[in-house]
Amino acid sequence: MEPTLLQSDVEVLAEGINLVWVLLVSFLIFFMHAGFAMLEAGQVRSKNVANQLTKNLLTWSVGVTVFFLIGVGVDGLVAGSGFAPGFDVGGVNDWVGWLFGAVFAMTAATIVSGAVAGRAKLRAYVAYTFLLAAVIYPVVTGLTWSGGLLSYNGVVFDDFAGGMIVHGMGGIAGLTAAWMLGPRLERYNEDGSANVIPGHSLTFAVLGTLILAFGWYGFNVGTAAEVIAITDEGLALGDFAYVGRVAMTTTIAMACGAMGAGLVAWLKTGKVDTLYVANGLLAGLVGITAIPHASTWWGAFLVGGLAGAQLPIVFGVVENYLKIDDVCAVFPVHGSAGVLGTLLLPVVASPEYMSGISGSRVDVFVAQVVGVVVIAGWTIAATAAVWGALKAVGQARVTPEHERDGLDVSEHGVDTYPEFGQPDVATDGGSADGIVRTDGGEKFAESRSSSELRSDGGEPNDGRIKMVTAIVRPDRLGEIKQSLAEAGAPSLTVTNVSGRGSQPAKKGQWRGEEYTVDLHQKVKIECVVADIPAEEVVAAIREAAETGEPGDGKIFVLPVEAATQVRTGKTGPDAV
């Protein structure tokens, strides 16, 4: 006799599978914060990287706790079920649902940080995150997912995974906050023309994009949260009955977003801009996020392509006409793309989806417009009120001095890239003690003695102290250190500098806009010698620094009037 599952066994099996699935996709959505951190850090200047990373860490830490204590209750209050904080649950497994909602809420919160990068006070951003997690975002979800209060003619506003509720809301909030703060210093000239301020790492931006795209499968596919449902006939697929459509439309829209943005950038500038391709990939994902359960296959192509194509155009409008400094392009990526995809639902909706709707495609469109207008209006009003209040009490923006120094130093007291001047650190093939390391071995430079005999009977440098200063390419530093050590002059000082000489200016592109680089990055090497002939030091540097191209640099030899060794008190050549 074959064993049969009891009804209680079936319920436990279904509940266990559904809980595991929701937890798995919640963890996947949480990992999107790593993508946001890299994407945003790559698009800011190197002096603001630690600040951007700190904001991402605190967005999660502050936001998720506030959402637990207050935000969940506000969501229920707006939806009409009363205020019940996250700790007031019927059973411990109800917290799985809370976590699933929390990772969505924190995604909306972290989007804002990219728009206000480089000039917002950390305390101001944290205060806004607190209020967004406590009130601003929960009001939106209370009106929509929890309450279903936005509708037209019996058709309820539909946003499957947060294209408007999460991303559109976050993008609009970011644009509003950036408008309230004002642009970064030197972003606009007196005549209103914009200056391009490139981010410090395109590599970070692209890797962050790919991490976000990976996590997005948890965002969209994961919203099909009920894997197995219990029916009168037994077990059946729940939301997974249409999960294949969600996975397909998400993937196609992602790809078309990248191609759409790249195509428009190419038509505008004649070049396929890498950052626009990356941002366009995300815009395609945002565009489909509200409707992946309903869209036809061709609709995914249309929505993704349009979401990517609008990106360079909308960013140009924001930058050149609205004069809003949206550092990480959060509005064209999340805001306008989210609105576009949400409104295109009746255009691309499949017959299967429409068969379950009580109204016409026109009714669906009006319902979507109602949702977009209400969410956008509430977000703009609430965000402007918060940042306006912070601005009124002088707590919204850092001082000009701190902005010029960089928020890493002024807000956190750290240097994200301490490239040079660190003791006992050598990452370019040399070392701090004169040892030249090649192929894993060691080669010790033979130091010339101060009593070295000279064929002309004189003393090196006529018994005087000389300083050899070289301005050279940074990539030649390792070879120069090795060459100096072999010449018996291992002691040197290295400084990062930038300058202009015979090397021609270069043209760069950042998000499709051209800028001129006429101050080139160099390193300045200073070597003070007494018993080593300065001409030998010059020859060693020149031999190692030369590439044969303009911009190899220059070497100067200067007399040193006096020298004193701090530790021993020795003076003159003995101090060197």
Description of the structure:
The protein has 17 helices and twelve strands. It has 576 residues and is an alpha+beta fold. The strands form five sheets. Strands 8-11-7-12 form a four-stranded antiparallel beta sheet, covered by helices on one side. The protein has a two-stranded antiparallel sheet with strand order 1-2. A hairpin with a 2-residue loop joins strand 1 (151-152) and strand 2.
Question: What's the SSE blueprint?
Answer:
Elements: H1 7-43, H2 49-79, H3 94-115, H4 122-146, E1 151-152, E2 155-156, H5 163-181, H6 202-220, E3 228-231, E4 234-237, H7 243-269, H8 274-289, H9 297-320, H10 330-343, H11 345-348, H12 351-355, H13 361-392, H14 400-405, H15 407-412, E5 435-436, E6 443-444, E7 465-472, H16 477-486, E8 493-499, E9 506-510, E10 513-517, E11 520-529, H17 534-545, E12 553-560
Antiparallel strand pairs: 1-2, 3-4, 5-6, 7-11, 7-12, 8-11, 9-10
Helix pairs in contact: 1-2, 1-3, 1-6, 2-3, 2-4, 3-4, 3-5, 4-13, 5-8, 5-10, 5-13, 6-7, 6-8, 7-8, 7-9, 8-9, 8-10, 9-10, 16-17
Concise overview:
This protein is an alpha+beta fold. The protein is built from 17 helices and 12 strands.
Distance between the termini: 96 Å
Give the strand tally. Answer: 12
Q: Which range best describes the helical content: under 10%, 10-25%, 25-40%, 40-55%, 55-70% or over 70%?
A: 40-55%
Structural class assignment: alpha+beta
Notable traits:
about 55% helix, 4-stranded antiparallel sheet, alpha+beta, about 575 residues
